[in-house]
């Protein structure tokens, strides 16, 4: 059996999300602070969850800077530390379950484990999305996230963007793997239906066949000589209509020989030569 598409998508997105969240958690780039009055113009300060780095002209980078504004004690930073670490651990557990459930080298994957891994990965995506969104909401609030006073400005840095991407990929990958429950649920419902002896599903009203009674046909007026070629059961039924008379003969026949007088006239015509013509009392063919 080929690996379903939903499993393949989840197995591709989950490791990418794990890598992005790992970089986002460890890299000191959640917030960018610049515009210090007592320092050169090109000096910027990168603030993360575990460390601060000072950079000048993209050439010199010094990490381990002192926390002069109690940035690491801010509530969004502390919550982000705990939730991001939890998200990483949950993602690793979800990938372990996914690798055991998908098992591309077997004929049929384990749909329950694959679906369970999708739920775990989806929860890991929520655990990483919550601190990233909360931190972004209070990014420029100097009371919640301490920072030097104006004209110092704060901006979003690359780690926060990677955290957003990793969280979205985890949510998509977890949802995709969670769809593996569908074949398992379908098979279980089919077995339960067979075990309970449920009746088959009735067809819809649009496919019901209705046998309407055929209307009685009006009997045709036909002539059946001597009762032959009658339909079956015609003798027992009451006849409707009237019997047609027999057709008359097609030609006229005369039993008397109408040419007898003409033959006698021809035999006496040559000898008598009378002016009185011979008239026959019988009709001939010309008269007809």
UniProtKB/TrEMBL annotation:
Gene3D superfamilies in the cross-refs: 1.20.140.150
UniProt similarity note: Belongs to the claudin family.
Membrane topology: Multi-pass membrane protein
Record keywords: Cell junction, Cell membrane, Membrane, Signal, Tight junction, Transmembrane, Transmembrane helix
Region spans: Disordered: 224-288
Presence of keyword Repeat: no
Protein name in the entry: Claudin-23
Endpoints of the signal sequence: 1-19
Compartment list: Cell junction, Tight junction; Cell membrane
Compositionally biased spans, kind Low complexity: 260-273
Gene Ontology cellular-component annotations: bicellular tight junction; plasma membrane
Coiled-coil stretches noted in the UniProt entry, renumbered to this chain: none
PANTHER family linked to this entry: CLAUDIN (PTHR12002)
Ranges annotated as spanning the membrane: 78-99, 111-136, 156-184
InterPro entries: Claudin, Claudin_CS, PMP22/EMP/MP20/Claudin
Gene Ontology molecular functions: structural molecule activity
PROSITE patterns linked: CLAUDIN (PS01346)
């Amino acid at each position: 059996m080929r690996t379903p598409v939903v499993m393949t998508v989840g197995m591709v997105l989950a490791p990418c999300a794990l890598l992005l969240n790992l970089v986002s958690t460890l890299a000191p780039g959640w917030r960018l602070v610049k515009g210090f009055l007592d320092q050169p113009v090109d000096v910027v300060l990168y603030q993360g969850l575990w460390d601060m780095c000072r950079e000048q002209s993209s050439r010199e980078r010094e990490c381990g800077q002192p926390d002069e504004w109690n940035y690491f004690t801010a509530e969004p930073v502390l919550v982000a530390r705990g939730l991001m670490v939890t998200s990483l651990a949950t993602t690793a557990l979800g990938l372990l379950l996914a690798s055991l459930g998908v098992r591309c080298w077997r004929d049929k994957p384990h749909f329950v484990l694959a679906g369970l891994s999708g739920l775990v990965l989806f929860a890991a995506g929520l655990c990483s999305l919550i601190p990233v969104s909360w931190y972004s909401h209070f990014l420029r609030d100097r009371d919640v996230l301490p920072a030097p006073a104006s004209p110092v400005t704060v901006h979003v840095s690359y780690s926060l963007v990677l955290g957003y991407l990793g969280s979205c990929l985890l949510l998509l990958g977890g949802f995709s793997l969670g769809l593996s429950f569908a074949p398992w649920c379908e098979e279980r419902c089919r077995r339960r239906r067979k075990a309970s002896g449920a009746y088959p599903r009735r067809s819809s009203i649009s496919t019901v066949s209705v046998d309407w009674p055929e209307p009685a046909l009006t009997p045709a007026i036909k002539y059946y000589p001597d009762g032959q070629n009658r339909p079956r059961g015609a003798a027992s039924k009451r006849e409707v209509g009237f019997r047609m008379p027999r057709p008359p003969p097609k030609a006229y026949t005369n039993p008397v020989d109408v040419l007898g007088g003409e033959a006698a006239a021809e035999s006496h015509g040559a000898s008598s030569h009378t002016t009185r013509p011979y008239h026959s009392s019988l009709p001939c063919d010309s008269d007809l």
